[in-house]
Design goal:
The complex is a heterodimer. By secondary structure, chain A is mainly alpha-helical. Chain A has 16 helices and no strands. In chain A, helix 11 crosses helix 13 and helix 13 runs antiparallel to helix 16. The N terminus of chain A is likely disordered. Chain B is of the alpha/beta class. In chain B, a hairpin with a 2-residue loop joins strand 4 and strand 5. In chain B, helix 3 runs antiparallel to helix 15 and helix 10 packs across helix 18. The longest helix of chain B is centred in the first third of the chain and has 20 residues. Classes of the chains: A mainly alpha, B alpha/beta. At the A-B interface, helix 3 and helix 4 of A face helix 2, helix 4 and helix 18 of B.
Chain lengths: 319, 423
């Protein structure tokens, strides 16, 4: 690092510096500089990550309600919040929906993202323009995106159904967001649309990092197209793939705004996930203790994924 | 070559401030101090108001309500001789803001709340009772008093109130030769007859929020159901009516996802011949060219039943800030704000009914079109009258039942039984 090795411009320090202890004082100064550089980061982490996490875990064990904000009293509740939420009729639905939503979204986002990334490796007229268009869903605020989708997917007046009706593919409007069988699928499709840019961009970046020589050498050995993908692209892309998947899972588990915007968890809780349940417990029922309990469960699930990812990665490196 | 490094060096070197060598320590110190300073200034954001200025928090963030309420507040403040510093937030964020301010001791001097939230907030000791402050509390509709009373004391009052009724497209009904429905059977028939092409007979809100529960309530209560037992046969009958309207295809399945604003949009665009909605939509509907509508009370199952309307409207309170001088000034401002003259003026401008039934006659002269609503709110029932701060759990159960039944997951009685678990 240039900052620690560059000569100090300060003259005051040079004056009272005994020649014999130069190295020791320099070491001390280095340590001080290290501390000063680390300090803000540590303060930041403790203040904005450590405190909320600890607070949230504690809140899960407290009877934390509206009154707590005024009186400061949050009686210890033990595991009551957890038993309450886990035995609630909604929990199993929400857990299953969270799994389906996450698996469905990640599978769709990754498959389409990878296809697009591979597609855009080739250069063709307008490829640059088209590639930047893919970023569009990323640039639109989620609330706006979900409002527009809700409008497009309306059963009677929605643009999608009108297109389908006028083309004669269906006889009556498809209840995209109002059928208990379809709503979750619809929400997943919208979430896939939102997640494609992230997957495509990162995977495209990963593909750029694969040297062309490998393909040239592979081609000489008869590895083209699918075989080239299987034996060159996929193994070379694996580190990027695992990053994309783990980040994707963590992002998707906590998706909230899209679901709230599209269905608010309905119809009949068909799109209720742990994230929406935590939000509703905390911010519409104002039972912050139970809300925290659900979000703690969500954090644990995310952690399991992170740990699984680390172990898988380590095994891959060992191999 | 790394182009990004080039660019950054270039940029740093060009800044006139950085042309002179700056000691590294100064940069480090500045780096450390900036977030700290930001944090401190954020903590200090408690709005130190000058003496004689009262802070007001409400959720009239949209026009025309924002200006109408603002004018009424300022008129009241002028009479008392104080200044107001008003903040209007979105309705959905209001309680969160109140909790935030409660925990940091920065509650405003005058606070507006949606009426079903009042008892919850009063239960936290965050509000001052009106009898202590000397704000007159007599003469209000029973529903208003019930919504605003916690533990025997009144903590807030509503200058104007509202409820929901049946709006209908006059021309659509005339063309079909149908009179406005008075009973459930007539409603079902009329809705079926009015459904044609891209137009549904009726639109209402059955979404998975408190709005969905609120629109179910008039049918639920009018039929004799009670929120302390949501599994009663009367409750199932009321839910059956809404379910029938959807299974008859007289109402779109989208009612599962429509808020009241979307219901109004369906109605004004001619995609629904009737709708269940409230008078706060009237200003916008009045601006629609060629829309001719009228309002009747929501139909009842048997004509011998009296319609029971749910009470809607915002109540005004004085938070316990500990600054007794300000609390007294706030009480004086609210007394003026809640005066009969002020109630009539706000009621006329906002299409809401004065909170005092004694003003009904004068109000009807000012707004003859509001007669249906004025009649309904006189006996309107407060959502929190029986359950108090327990209401949100029951409201959740009610909209869950509506969702289960309308989506065809469970027949009405079973839907209510399943939803009972949420209470």
């Amino acid at each position: 690092m240039t900052t620690t090795t560059a000569p100090a411009p300060s003259d005051s320090r040079a004056r009272d510096r005994p020649a014999t202890s130069t190295s020791r004082s320099r070491r001390r100064r280095q340590r001080l500089v290290t501390a000063l550089f680390l300090g803000p980061a540590i303060v930041y982490l403790v203040l904005f990550f450590g405190y909320p996490t600890v607070k949230n875990i504690a809140m899960g064990f407290q009877q934390y309600t509206i009154s707590t904000f005024f009186t400061g009293e949050a009686p210890w509740a033990g595991l009551a919040n957890y038993t309450e939420v886990v035995t609630s009729p909604l929990f199993r639905t929400a857990l299953l929906n969270t799994i389906l939503f996450t698996v469905g979204s990640i599978a769709g986002q990754f498959a389409l993202g990878l296809s697009l990334a591979l597609f855009f490796r080739r250069r063709f007229p307008l490829s640059g323009l088209l590639r930047s268009l893919i970023l569009l869903p990323w640039l639109i605020p989620l609330i706006v995106a979900s409002a527009v989708w809700k409008w497009l997917l309306d059963t009677d007046a929605g643009a999608l159904n009108r297109l389908l009706l006028s083309s004669g593919l269906v006889d009556s409007g498809i209840p995209w967001l109002t059928s208990t069988d379809l709503a979750l699928v619809t929400v997943i499709i919208v979430n896939i649309w939102i997640g494609i840019p992230f997957n495509a961009v990162i995977l495209h970046g990963g593909l750029q990092g694969i040297p062309d020589e490998l393909y040239e050498a592979g081609a000489l050995d008869g590895a083209t197209r699918w075989r080239a993908f299987r034996h060159i692209t996929w193994p070379m892309l694996r580190p990027v793939v695992s990053v994309v998947l783990v980040l994707g899972v963590v992002y998707t588990l906590k998706v909230l705004d899209i679901i709230l915007g599209l269905t608010n968890g309905g119809p009949a809780n068909a799109t209720q996930t742990l994230a929406t349940q935590a939000y509703q417990l905390s911010f519409t029922t104002f039972d912050f203790g139970q809300g925290a309990a659900v979000s703690n469960i969500l954090i644990v699930i995310s952690l399991i994924f992170a740990v699984a990812y680390l172990r898988l990665n380590r095994r891959a490196v060992d191999e | 070559m790394n182009p990004s490094r080039d660019v950054s060096r270039h940029r740093w070197g060009r800044g006139p401030l950085l042309r002179r060598p700056v000691s590294r320590r100064a940069i480090t110190t500045a780096g450390l101090m900036t977030p700290l300073a930001a944090l401190l200034s954020a903590c200090g954001d408690t709005a130190q108001t000058p003496p004689g200025t009262l802070r007001v928090l409400d959720s009239y963030a949209n026009e025309p309500d924002k200006t109408i309420i603002g004018d009424a507040l300022h008129a009241a403040a002028d009479k008392v001789g104080v200044q107001l510093q008003r903040v209007s937030v979105d309705g959905s964020a209001l309680v969160q803001r109140v909790l935030q301010q409660g925990s940091s001791g920065t509650l405003p001097d005058i606070l507006m709340l949606d009426n079903p939230n009042l008892q919850q907030i009063a239960a936290t000791t965050a509000l001052r009772p009106f009898d202590e402050l000397g704000i007159p509390t007599d003469g209000y509709a029973d529903g208003v008093t019930a919504a605003c009373t916690y533990d025997g004391r009144v903590y807030g009052l509503a200058p104007t109130v509202n409820t929901i009724a049946l709006f209908y497209d006059v021309r659509a009904l005339d063309e079909a030769g149908i009179a406005p429905p008075r009973t459930w059977a007539e409603l079902r028939e009329a809705a079926a007859a009015l459904t044609a092409g891209r137009r549904y007979g009726i639109a209402f809100c059955g979404n998975a929020t408190y709005e969905g529960a609120w629109q179910y309530l008039p049918f639920f209560w009018t039929n004799g159901a009670d929120e302390r037992d949501i599994t009663s046969p009367e409750a199932a009958q009321a839910l059956g009516l809404l379910t029938d309207l959807v299974t008859d295809r007289s109402a779109s399945t989208s009612v599962l996802n429509w808020g009241q604003v979307e219901v109004k949009d369906q109605f004004i665009s001619g995609r629904a011949a009737m709708m269940v909605n409230g008078p706060w939509q009237i200003p916008e509907m009045a601006a629609v060219e060629g829309l001719e509508y009228d309002v009747v009370p929501l139909p009842v199952r048997r004509l011998t039943q009296t319609p029971v309307a749910p009470l809607g409207g915002e109540v005004w309170t004085v938070p316990a800030t500990g600054r007794s001088a300000n609390e007294e000034l706030a009480a004086a401002v609210l007394t003026e704000f809640l005066s009969e003259e002020s109630q009539l003026s706000m009621g006329e401008q906002r299409y809401t009914v004065p909170g005092k039934p004694a003003l009904a006659d004068e109000y009807s002269r000012l707004r003859p079109g509001m007669a249906t609503f004025a009649d309904l709110v006189e006996d309107a029932r407060a959502r929190t009258a029986e359950l108090g701060s327990e209401w949100p759990a029951t409201a959740t159960a009610l909209y869950t039942a509506v969702q289960l039944a309308l989506s065809g997951q469970s027949p009405p009685a079973a839907a209510l039984a399943r939803a009972q678990e949420y209470v």
